[in-house]
Design brief:
43% of the residues lie in helices and 15% in strands. By secondary structure, it is an alpha/beta fold. The longest helix has 22 residues. The relative contact order is 0.18.
Length: 552
Amino acid sequence: MNISALQQARYAYNPKLPSSLKNSINDIVLESGGPTEAVTDRDELRGIFKLSYGKPIVTFAKGKNDKIGHELKVGVILSGGQAPGGHNVIAGLFDGLKKGNPNSTLYGFLGGPSGLVGNKARVISQAEIDTYRNTGGFDMIGSGRTKIETPEQFASSLETAKALGLDAVVVIGGDDSNTNAALLAEYFLANGSKIQVIGCPKTIDGDLKSEHIETSFGFDTACKTYSELIGNLCRDSYSAKKYWHFIKLMGRAASHIALECALQTQPNICLISEEVEAKKLSLDKIVEQICASIVKRAENGDHFGIVLIPEGLVEFIPEIKQLIHELNDTIAAKEEEFASIGSFTEQVNWLSSRISNVSHAILQTLPPEIAREFLMDRDPHGNVQVSRIETEKLLVDMVEEKLGVMKGNNLYKGKFSALTHFFGYEGRCAFPSNFDSDYCYSLGYSAFVLIASGLTGYLSSVKNLTAPADQWIAGGVPLTMLMNMEQRHGSKKPVIKKAMVELNGKPFKAFEEKRGVWAEKTSFLYPGAIQYFGPPEVCDSVTKTLLLEHEK
């Protein structure tokens, strides 16, 4: 196989571990806290998770443990979208298993959760692991978005695990995938099975986090990758002095990526979905804010700039949020009937008597090419696929229109030329940064220790992440502790609560303090490419979000 020089060098990188995991396998013991509770909806969740609710948080410490080295068979699943570092989670899990007992076996389920349901698995070898260490992508075993939710799927999953003689299943995924892990753990227990289920927190969006899950893996690498690209555009626009770049970034439910990239690059405008919702900013108001920056910069002779837009922004704008809510519920209730409608015009007419007059009017006023994107196929959860809605183009169209009116009224005399971008897939499979390489390996190794210690229904946890890696604190958090009840497909279901940007949090406050200056003056930063070799303060750096959140 032909490989690049960087890939060859990354194979040789030895991920750093917390000191508690550097001990001999037989010298790692659990330290447990008291019972835990869910985020909200505790009575309902206690009723759903009768056998796995309320378990304690655990951490690892040094101590004699003669039971941890028994032979194990474990299956691992990559679930959902790709995130840098997934292969290192598997490598950490594999190495832990083999150090515990060389006869232990790791199975990889192919194509995501469907591999567990359909019994599509293969043994992962040492040679294969060594081929994927410290590399991006999920191509070792593939991923998928199958949601295990029907009685038949749960039964098939248990049948597969029994057929392979598994002791445990590890689910590497985001909030929905780890909700699945929690339900699977409960199902196995309810059916008299001792097969354990452990999750690992993955999502570049950064919305799977809590006091004990300080960040999800892949966020660091993705933000550094996007920030390099944004910094390149900042430099280009400053050089050419003629383009406004409207850049949409990954982040449907939360704006963590947009906020982190703003802190790294200092754009002129960065929209934060959570703020838009809190202040009930209309689409027109957002356009006004962007135009205000463009006008002010034009007065300074600067006819260029950078605007960052979170992927899910449209779902936080009050009038658009209501439109999407009505569309999701209406289309879900008549899914087959709606799918049979041929043209866009007929779809809009069909909706006229089924959604409110206000929402129907908004749908009709949107540019047709944008309105069509609101009616495209829904995602597996029945929601509009916001990544396919070209919000950046919608904003450019509206800004151009408003500037035209202002120019006609002699309120604007500048030049406006815009280019649009969507940075999403560019960051999902990048070579993981040193931080993500270390963090992911530690998560996988921790998952092994949780399994070897007999736990189920836990999420692998590594915290104290702004400290050097040997000071990280490894352990596990009960999945039920992260949950609440949410409306899905017309009914309330248990899900891990997404972590949103906190408007009173230190990262947002740091951004809020500076953005007024950035809107008028060129203050760009140019982070450059991810560095893998060199001084630790460069190569092992963490996100500005983490640094600010841990600022004393």
